[in-house]
Structures are given as structure tokens and as C-alpha cells.
């Protein structure tokens, strides 16, 4: 295999591997807001107070409103017995406007 | 002696794989419950679990990675020495206690070590090829380096260090046109995109920051690290020290990996025993050292290596959950959900059939059901003790 062919092939594979991360990038934009970051910490603390395993909660949406920030998660619990059906969790945290 | 040592390593690496309890870190990985690392290693464990839902099946991923790593170290050593010397390297690696033990458990470090060794092997292969015939070697280098970055978060350290090393080597020869440097740059791009778009990784670093990560209290870290190394490696530790001059005969890429393998324990947690897995890279200088010994000291050294492996293997393995889970599940039969308080590791989820809620910060005043007390100072609501032993209590609130 020629070096030039390898470089082209690896470049294409690199782009393919990077696409899933690039598709997630827009969902990270709300976290540039300090209010959202602060609300996220409180939301995680609230999830813990309700007994959920944080590592099983995948954040799917962040909605910033005038006086609150709402977070949506999909909760997937797995154990030695198998996986429970996914559940949707939603928490809205009041913020200072 | 080489064959005998390899055979002992083979037997010990397959001995009683399913016996120890699943550790909480293992449970994290096989349940896909870790936000701290990229997904490749976790996916491999889950793939094995999909084939056969058992701890042994998941651990066989590490076992296979361990065997492949011993083979890769043999091939790597063969590039710089004779087949005989490479045999001593493989023999040392096969009974290297830390690598042997953690290659029988579902930790990511066995996979990480294999990926790092393959990265070095493919790098050296690519370096030795002429430009017009190096295409396949470059492809393998890219694949090994990408795999390195997607098993554990710190996996990118080796490809990054090798890139900087290569740029330095080629500084007088237009490094921007060097295909090896190009492959290493490409291999780092996917993880460079992955880390900022998966905030769980940074959240975990923040959670463990300060006390575990960094160089705070450096002398205490070094003392703890040496204690961990001695406990996990026994006589392989002084042997590694004696073999350090043999590093001179090995290429810079191997020295870089030796430094990374040693330093990750200092920087990321000197008490974390699993970091000794990557120290198997020191089988290279140790093998070179053993090969140069006269016959009698060489035989004695190999016997001491085998003895260390046996001694570490013979240590008692924790089997509490393997022997008590059925009793607890019988008491919890038909229950959908329970609360666990105290040090609730992910392994509890593996062994118990009901869904487990983490109760340490829950308001339990109105909880009506089972509570598993793993050792907490919290006052719990009025309850009936259904089961109690030296490790836990199973309670039911009235």
C-alpha cells in the first residue's frame, strides 16, 4: 500500500470517527452560560438526592428559560440481571435572572 | 527455563478467573456505567457480556489482551535483540505479577497496555520501512494509536509524546511532511473532539481532583507508590531497578512508555494498584538484563520471578458477594427497588436483582421498603433487621 493512499484512507477514517463528537457539539453550547453550568451542578445534586446513578443518566436536552433551566435525561439502569427500560427524567432548576 | 516460565504464566493467567468478587471498578466497565473514560474498552467488555452474560466472559477480554501483550512484547524485543533474548522478555512479561493479576480482571488497563505496546511496535516498524513501502505500517500505527486514545482517558499521553518526539527528531527535515508525524496527528484528532463533547470525563476529573490527581504532597505519593509497587510486583520491582541500565539499548519510544507507565501512578493515584499493569513494559529491560546473566544466576532469577507470580496469585481473593448474593436475593425476591446506604459501589448492582437506588443523600424518612446498610453513620428510619453479618445489614422499614 502506498504512503499517499494510507494517508488519504486514515484521514477519511479520522473524519468518520470524529463525526459523532461533532454532532454532540451543539448540545454543549448552552454550557457556555454560567447560569446553565450552575444549574447543572444543582440538577446533578438533585438527581443524587432522588437516588439515581449519575453515570446512567445521559443528558439529551437543555432548555434555558427566563427564570429556570430545564434538563432532560434518559436514564438507563443496567445490572447483573439485565437492563431496565429507559426512563426520561426532567428537572427544572430556578435561576437568578 | 523460558518455556517453563511461559507455561507457568499461561496457567496462572487462566487460573480461577471467575473466583474473585467483581470489584466496583470492574462493574463500572462491564455495566457501561463509567463516564470517566472513552468507550472502546467498555464496548469490548459489553460485547463479551452479550455473548455470555457472566463475569468470566467479561474478564476473558482482559485475559486475551494479556496474552496478546506478551506476544507483542516478544515481537518488539525481537526488533532490537535475538530471538533468545526476546524469549526472556516474553517469559518475564508472562509472569509479571501486576500484569498477570489485572489481566484476569475486567479493568481497562490490560487493554490499554496492549494498545500502547502495539503503538510502539507499529511505530518502530514504520520507522524501519522506506517511504514508498511503508503504507501498511503507517495504517497499523494509526489504528493502534487511535485505539490507545479510546480505551482510557490518559491513553492519548503516549501518541502525544511520540508525536512530540518525532517532531523533534525530524526538526531539520521538514517535519510537516513526515508521514509518521502525520499519522500520529490524525490519531489524536478523534479524542481531541471526544473529550470536550463528553463533559462526564472532566466532571469525574473534577470530582477526584486535588487529593487523587496531581502532585500535591509529592513525597507521600512516592512512598505510597513504592508501597503499591512492592505489594503488587514483589521481586520484579528490585529486578526492574537493576535492569534500568539496559534501557540504554532500547529505542527512545520504549523509554518514553516506561516513563509514562511509571508517572501515571504518581500523577493519577499512587494507591491505585491497577496502574501496575502498564509497568509490564519493564519486561523489556528486565529480559535484556536476564539474558546477559551467567547461567546459574539467570536460572535463579527466573525462579524468583515465577515465585513472585505464584505468591501474588496465592493471596486470598475477596469472595463475599459470590457466596452471599443468593441469600440476599432470596430475601429480596419480588422486590422491584431497594435503597443502599454506605459505600455503594457498582458491584452491588451486579449482584442484586432489584434496582438499587443510591441512598446516601436521599431523604429516607418516608421510604417504605428495603434498605441495604453497607456501613453508614446516618440514622435510619425505624426498621426490622432481616439479615445481618460482618459486612452489611438488610433492613425493612416498618
Q: Could you describe the 3D structure shown?
A:
The complex is a heterodimer of chains A (97) and B (398). Helices cover 43% and strands 29% of the residues of chain A. Chain A has two helices and five strands; from the N terminus they run ααβββββ. Chain A has a three-stranded antiparallel sheet. The longest helix of chain A is centred in the first third of the chain and has 26 residues. The termini of chain A are far apart. Chain B folds into two domains: 312 residues, no CATH class; 78 residues, no CATH class. A five-stranded mixed sheet of chain B has the order 2-1-3-5-4, with no helix packed on it. The longest helix of chain B is centred in the first third of the chain and has 24 residues. Chain B starts with a helix and ends with a strand. The model of chain B has no long low-confidence stretch (mean pLDDT 90). At the A-B interface, helix 1, helix 2 and strand 3 of A face helix 8, helix 10, helix 18 and strand 2 of B.
Characteristics:
heterodimer; A: 97 residues; alpha+beta; two-stranded antiparallel sheet; B: 398 residues; alpha/beta; 2 domains; five-stranded mixed β-sheet; 59% helix; globular
Question: How far apart are the termini of chain A?
Answer: 61 Å
For the largest beta-sheet of chain B, the strand count, sense and barrel status come to: 5 strands, mixed
Q: Please state the overall shape of chain B, judged from the principal axes of the Cα atoms.
A: globular
Tell me the helix content of chain B.
Answer: 55-70%
Number of E-type strands of chain B: 5
Beta percentage of chain B is 5-15%
Proportion in helices of chain A:
40-55%
Tell me the series of helices and strands of chain A, N- to C-terminal: HHEEEEE
What Rg of chain B, in angstroms, do the CA atoms define?
Answer: 23 Å
Amino acid at each position: 500500500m502506498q504512503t499517499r493512499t494510507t494517508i488519504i484512507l486514515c484521514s477519511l477514517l479520522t473524519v468518520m470517527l470524529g463525526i459523532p463528537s461533532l454532532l454532540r457539539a451543539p448540545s454543549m453550547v448552552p454550557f457556555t452560560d454560567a447560569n446553565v453550568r450552575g444549574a447543572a451542578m444543582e440538577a446533578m445534586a438533585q438527581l443524587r438526592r432522588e437516588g439515581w446513578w449519575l453515570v446512567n443518566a445521559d443528558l439529551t436536552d437543555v432548555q434555558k428559560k427566563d427564570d429556570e433551566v430545564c434538563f432532560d435525561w434518559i436514564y438507563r439502569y443496567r445490572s447483573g440481571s439485565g437492563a431496565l427500560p429507559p426512563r426520561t427524567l426532567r428537572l427544572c432548576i430556578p435561576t437568578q435572572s | 527455563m523460558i518455556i517453563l516460565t511461559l507455561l507457568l504464566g499461561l496457567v496462572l493467567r487462566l487460573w480461577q478467573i471467575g473466583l474473585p468478587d467483581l470489584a466496583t471498578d470492574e462493574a463500572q466497565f462491564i455495566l457501561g456505567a463509567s463516564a470517566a473514560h472513552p468507550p472502546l474498552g467498555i464496548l469490548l467488555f459489553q460485547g463479551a457480556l452479550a455473548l455470555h452474560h457472566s463475569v468470566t466472559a467479561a474478564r476473558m477480554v482482559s485475559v486475551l489482551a494479556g496474552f496478546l501483550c506478551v506476544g507483542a512484547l516478544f515481537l518488539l524485543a525481537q526488533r532490537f535483540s535475538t530471538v533468545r533474548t526476546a524469549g526472556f522478555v516474553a517469559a518475564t512479561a508472562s509472569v509479571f505479577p501486576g500484569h498477570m493479576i489485572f489481566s484476569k480482571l475486567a479493568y481497562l488497563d490490560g487493554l490499554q497496555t496492549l494498545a500502547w505496546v502495539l503503538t510502539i511496535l507499529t511505530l518502530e516498524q514504520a520507522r524501519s520501512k522506506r517511504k514508498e513501502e511503508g503504507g501498511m505500517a503507517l495504517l497499523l500505527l494509526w489504528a493502534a494509536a487511535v485505539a490507545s486514545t479510546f480505551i482510557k482517558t490518559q491513553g492519548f499521553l503516549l501518541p502525544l509524546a511520540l508525536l512530540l518526539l518525532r517532531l523533534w527528531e525530524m526538526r531539520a527535515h521538514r517535519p510537516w511532511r513526515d508521514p509518521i508525524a502525520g499519522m500520529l496527528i490524525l490519531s489524536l484528532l478523534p479524542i481531541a473532539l471526544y473529550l470536550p463533547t463528553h463533559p462526564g470525563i472532566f466532571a469525574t476529573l473534577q470530582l477526584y481532583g486535588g487529593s487523587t490527581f496531581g502532585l500535591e504532597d509529592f513525597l507521600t505519593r512516592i512512598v505510597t507508590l513504592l508501597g503499591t509497587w512492592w505489594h503488587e510486583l514483589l521481586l520484579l520491582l528490585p529486578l526492574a531497578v537493576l535492569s534500568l541500565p539496559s534501557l540504554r539499548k532500547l529505542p527512545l519510544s520504549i523509554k518514553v512508555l516506561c516513563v509514562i507507565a511509571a508517572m501515571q501512578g504518581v500523577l493519577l493515584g499512587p494507591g491505585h494498584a491497577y496502574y501496575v499493569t502498564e509497568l509490564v513494559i519493564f519486561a523489556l529491560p528486565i529480559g535484556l538484563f536476564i539474558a546477559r546473566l551467567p547461567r546459574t544466576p539467570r536460572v535463579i532469577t527466573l525462579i524468583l520471578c515465577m515465585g513472585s507470580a505464584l505468591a501474588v496469585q496465592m493471596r486470598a481473593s475477596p469472595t463475599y458477594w459470590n457466596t452471599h448474593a443468593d441469600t440476599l436475593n432470596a430475601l429480596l425476591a419480588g422486590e422491584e427497588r431497594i435503597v443502599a446506604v454506605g459505600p455503594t459501589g457498582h458491584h452491588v448492582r451486579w449482584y442484586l436483582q432489584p434496582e438499587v437506588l443510591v441512598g446516601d443523600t436521599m431523604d429516607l424518612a418516608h421510604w417504605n421498603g428495603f434498605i441495604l446498610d453497607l456501613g453508614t453513620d446516618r440514622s435510619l428510619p425505624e426498621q426490622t433487621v432481616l439479615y445481618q453479618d460482618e459486612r452489611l445489614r438488610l433492613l425493612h422499614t416498618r
